[in-house]
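Quick review question:
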């Protein structure tokens, strides 16, 4: 009887020891999961009139704790009652790669394969289906600025996966690995020109029903300013301001072409992005006219005619 009771106690102790060991392993695994660096994407961003607000904000942009807390989503506050941005820490996806990876290939994205993922080739995206827009003198230009977090890194997304945005004209965000060759296009999807923005480019978007004279004037001004430019029609441009210049984090809407204003915008915001490489892109589907070199590496933005590289 004594030996049976002793055996039962020994078995009970062994069971408790095994349970404790299993719990320790489970806890350790959970902590390891939270210690893995997580990519952070902005999923909502409200523009603000004060571009210096984020400089004085005492909060943190990135979830950097590793104590096992769950960071499904984090809201950051600029003022007491105003949401500045909402961030999520998504799980790593097999079709999403980080910057710097050798991801320009037929498996991920070569700029030629599976292009219908971003655009089905519809003529409605670059054809005017109504009367042309004429300038209205009392509609002022509009400047929108997105406060891009200092440590924000846009993901490269392979062609096996779609990309969506929370703004009709995004100024930053995830994009395709193969950026577009610079120049004028019959149509270029935003998933391509967003990568060009990240390299310091200026993108000119115009509604297909914009008056041709306005288009030509804006094209001429932009082409004379820098090599890194993209020009494409875009039906999501607002009809009251049918010409939009976009840089990384900035949008200038115009009802009519103000060459002085546009040039000032380009000088101030071009070539100021996360990466400022002047290398041409790989994607050239429906490229009408390649960009011409204005100054080496676009170091001289909007130079006088006698200083332009292609005029020497």
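Suggested answer, residue by residue:
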């Amino acid at each position: 009887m004594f030996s049976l009771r002793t055996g039962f106690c020994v078995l009970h102790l062994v069971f408790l020891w095994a349970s404790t060991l299993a719990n320790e392993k489970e806890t350790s695994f959970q902590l390891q999961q939270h210690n893995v660096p997580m990519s952070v994407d902005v999923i909502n961003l409200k523009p603000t009139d004060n571009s210096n607000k984020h400089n004085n904000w005492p909060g943190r942009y990135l979830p950097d704790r590793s104590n096992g807390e769950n960071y499904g989503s984090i809201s950051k506050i600029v003022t007491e009652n105003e949401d500045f941005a909402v961030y999520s820490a998504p799980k790593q996806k097999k079709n999403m790669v980080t910057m710097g990876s050798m991801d320009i290939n037929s498996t991920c994205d070569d700029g030629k394969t599976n292009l219908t993922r971003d655009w089905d080739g519809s003529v409605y995206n670059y054809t005017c289906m109504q009367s042309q827009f004429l300038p209205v003198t009392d509609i002022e230009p509009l400047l929108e600025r997105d406060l891009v977090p200092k440590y924000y890194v846009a993901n490269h997304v392979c062609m096996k996966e779609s990309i969506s945005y929370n703004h009709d004209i995004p100024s930053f965000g995830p994009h395709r690995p193969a950026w577009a060759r610079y120049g004028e296009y019959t149509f270029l999807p935003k998933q391509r020109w967003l990568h060009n923005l990240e390299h310091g480019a200026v993108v000119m978007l115009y509604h297909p029903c914009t008056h041709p004279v306005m288009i030509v004037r804006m094209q001429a001004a932009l082409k004379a300013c820098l090599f890194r430019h993209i020009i494409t029609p875009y039906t999501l441009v607002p009809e009251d301001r049918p010409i939009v210049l976009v840089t990384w984090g900035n949008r200038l809407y115009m009802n009519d072409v103000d060459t002085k204003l546009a040039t000032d915008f380009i000088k101030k915001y071009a070539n100021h992005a996360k990466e400022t490489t002047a290398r041409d892109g790989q994607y050239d589907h429906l490229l009408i006219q390649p960009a011409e070199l204005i100054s080496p590496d676009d170091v001289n933005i909007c130079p006088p005619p006698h200083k332009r590289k292609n005029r020497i």
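Why it works: Residues 61 and 150 are 8 Å apart (CA to CA). The helical segments are 2-35, 53-56, 190-198, 212-223, 259-269.
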